[in-house]
Amino acid sequence: MKGRRRRQLEHSENHERWLVSYADFITLLFAFFVVMYSISTARDGSYRVLSDSIVRALNTPLLALQRDSSGGVPMPDAWSAGAPGADASQALIPLKPELLNPGLSQAEPGDAAAESRGEINRLAGAVENRVSDFIDEELIKVERNDYWLEIEIKAQLLFASGSRVLLSDAVPVLENFALVLRDVPNLVNVEGFTDNVPILNGRFPSNWELSAARAATVVRLFEENGIAPERLSATGYGEHRPIASNDTPEGRARNRRVVLVVMSSAASGERLPGIMLAAGRNPAAG
Q1: Is there a contact between 282 and 67 (Cβ–Cβ < 8 Å)?
Q2: What pLDDT sits at residue 49?
Q3: Between the CA atoms of 8, 10, 16 and 17, what dihedral angle is there, to the nearest 10 degrees?
Q4: Rounded Cα distance, 76 and 100, in Å
Q5: For the purposes of burial, counting CB atoms within 10 Å of the CB of 271, is it exposed (0-12), middle (13-18) or buried (19 or more)?
Q6: What does DSSP assign to residue 167?
Q7: CB under 8 Å to 9, separation ≥6 — which residues?
Q8: Percent of the chain scored above 90 by pLDDT?
Q9: Sequence-distant (≥ 6) Cβ neighbours of residue 124 within 8 angstroms
């Protein structure tokens, strides 16, 4: 009898094992509804902030805006980077001002553009009034668009050949620019350019150093005349951003220049790496 009872105990089964699986299922179901409830009560603003942050993080290093070879208005809709047969020097990446300045995304695009355009037009008008004689002589050229002002100055007005020292007549001209720019918040980048004739005076290893030194000289004068240094930057492009052919004396004279790029307040919200930060322009454009 004892052997038969032992065999019956050994063959008995636990019919309540399903409770373990049921408990796991209920736990997962509870977690699912907790997550769904959390998502349903989250504020839409949190998603907007996250989305804007991701967009800026992914796009900021690549932002640049291309101008045409004549120095004219930008072409924001042209995309050619990586396109088959595209010229790398003409690669275009549109610049979106709302990514430069996140505050723009909260405003109507038309209003932001109109406000920026008005600001640039006021600056351009003040500059043109102060240097109108030089504009008439085609020694200074003023161009503008919605987001920046460009002031191109012929190098012959500022420097002797192969020198970084300002001519005496150049100082009052640049001081006129400083009077307009010192009391506004806009970023100012000074760009130096040369022709392709090798420099032979021994003071500079190449035209690159000469162009950078000239840009820095102008920046220093602006600082001495009251423009906040944190608003200023300088860069030299040497002979590598021509706007005319270097095969003629006239073309080389056009290429020897200094360009002041004054950004609108809207486009000055965030600095981009290197020269793009202050100018918002593709250096391949010249």
Answers
A1: yes
A2: 59
A3: -150
A4: 15
A5: middle
A6: P
A7: none
A8: 47
A9: 142, 144, 149
> pLDDT at residue 67 above 50?
no
> How are strands ordered across the β-sheet holding 148-154?
140-144, 148-154, 257-263, 188-193, 232-236
Looking at per-residue pLDDT, the higher value among 266 and 176 belongs to 176
**What CA dihedral angle connects 68, 69, 70 and 75, to 10 degrees?**
0
- What one-letter code names the amino acid at 108? E
Contact 93, 282 (CB under 8 A): yes
pTM score above 0.70: no
Torsion of CA 201, 203, 207, 210, to 10 degrees: -130
Strands 148-154 and 257-263: antiparallel
What Rg do the C-alpha atoms of the chain give, in angstroms?
31
Q: Distances from the Cα of 125 to the Cαs of 121, 142, 149, 195, 202, in angstroms?
A: 6, 10, 11, 30, 41
What are the φ/ψ torsions at residue 261 (nearest 5 degrees)? -115, 115
Q: Parallel, antiparallel, or unpaired: how do β-strands 188-193 and 140-144 relate?
A: unpaired
Per-residue tokens: 159: 């420097």
Per the structure block, which two tokens stand in for 129? 């009034």
